[in-house]
Specification:
alpha/beta; 33% helix
Length: 381
């Protein structure tokens, strides 16, 4: 197996991309303040994807050069998604496009929607009404992706990428997508690219946790960094933590840190493992924490806890956490700064509508500083 790159070995020499993200991108339809079944008008449209949200954060918020590797049907919905990615500053030249001519070529479908772009309806919830997402993704172009669809030797070897990320949503959406993610991670390792994956388990995508765990166990040996939320190590990797359900952050953290160390022992080539914790008091109010384990130095870096923060949209917290940590690494920051950026970016995406924040780095740094000092939020005038 190729040598897995550690966070200390991230390339500093010139590469075309700071980050490249392989995953699914969907069109998200948001009915604003009513559940989807009541939606009639006043809808909002976003793009989003568990893996590709990281590319958007790296590009727009942190000013880094990032690209997405995904598949879309070449129709107005696909164009809408592409245009939103462009707005976030992401390079879209690596997208695999399916035409709608039905011409028999390898990436061709019909114009009646037999193959389509993924769509979801996400109601953000309010009070006692929880957030709810309805998916239309089974027959999407992204679900058809497979090994051989992308030239990873050219991307990682000739053009150059410093950090590559993928995740647990891509691996489960299609019959060959897990094989593609593993191919990409293998190739990235061969070419000296730091590899990160977010477990991102979704029961609606794969109800069978054992299948998800088997796939992630195959992917994990190629990772330099693993991230997930407070239940992903169990749901998506099979490592259970003995902690009472609903325990506060201070009680959850020590036993979860022991679980993380078990993962690090079983996958000794991982150099970083990050986890974010969300204590949801209701749909509008969360407590938010995060920790990062440096397996090379056996050290912990924990961000300041944010208790009972009012939010607008909980989608994308883990993705923004990951992009904040990766941005810190790519910009040469220490690990405490990286986890502080990750936690700050993760809460800010929950303060803004959509899957990504579209804030700037200064806003992330200001939130990280506010949380560390326990300060309030002042209007900027």
């Amino acid at each position: 197996m190729a040598n897995v790159i550690t966070y200390k070995q991230i390339k500093t020499s010139e590469c075309e991309y700071d980050g490249a993200s392989l995953g699914e991108v969907m069109l998200r339809i948001d009915p604003r303040d009513v559940p989807t079944a009541r939606a009639r008008d006043n809808l909002r449209i976003f793009q989003g994807g568990g893996e590709t949200n990281i590319a958007c954060g790296l590009a727009h918020t942190f000013g880094l050069r990032s690209a997405v590797l995904t598949a879309l049907v070449d129709d107005p919905v696909g164009e809408n998604i592409r245009n939103q990615l462009r707005e976030a500053g992401v390079d879209v030249s690596n997208i695999l496009w399916w035409n709608t001519r039905g011409d028999g070529s390898p990436y061709s479908t019909d114009a009646k929607g037999s193959l389509h772009n993924g769509i979801n309806f996400t109601y953000v919830g309010a009070g006692a009404l929880p957030s709810h997402t309805t998916y239309y993704r089974a027959h999407s172009a992204a679900a058809q992706m497979k090994p051989g669809d992308f030239d990873f030797d050219e991307l990682f070897g000739e053009r150059g990428v410093r950090v590559f990320n993928t995740g647990g949503i891509l691996t489960l959406i299609g019959p060959r997508t897990a094989d593609l993610a593993i191919e990409a991670a293998q190739k990235a390792a061969e070419h000296g690219v730091f590899v990160c994956a977010d477990l991102n388990y979704r029961s609606k995508v794969e109800p069978n946790k054992e299948r998800a765990r088997a796939i992630n166990q195959r992917l994990a040996p190629y990772l330099g960094m693993l991230v997930g939320n407070d239940s992903d190590l169990s749901d998506a990797l099979g490592y259970d933590t003995e902690v009472e359900k609903g325990a506060p952050f201070e009680e959850w953290l020590p036993p979860y840190q022991e679980t993380i160390k078990r993962v690090a022992a079983d996958f000794p080539k991982m150099s970083l493992i990050g986890a974010q914790w969300r204590g949801a008091h209701n749909a509008d109010n969360v407590s938010w924490g995060a920790t990062l384990y440096d397996a090379l130095e056996d050290e912990w870096h924990t961000a300041a806890l944010r208790p009972r923060i009012p939010i607008r949209d909980r989608t994308g917290g883990g993705d923004s956490f990951a992009s904040g940590v990766l941005a810190g690494l790519l910009k040469g920051k220490d690990l405490q700064t990286a986890v502080n950026w990750g936690a700050a970016h993760g809460i800010l995406v929950q303060e803004t509508p959509g899957d990504i924040t579209m804030v700037n780095q200064a806003a992330v740094e200001a939130e990280a500083s506010r949380a560390q000092t326990g300060g309030g939020v002042k209007a900027s005038r």
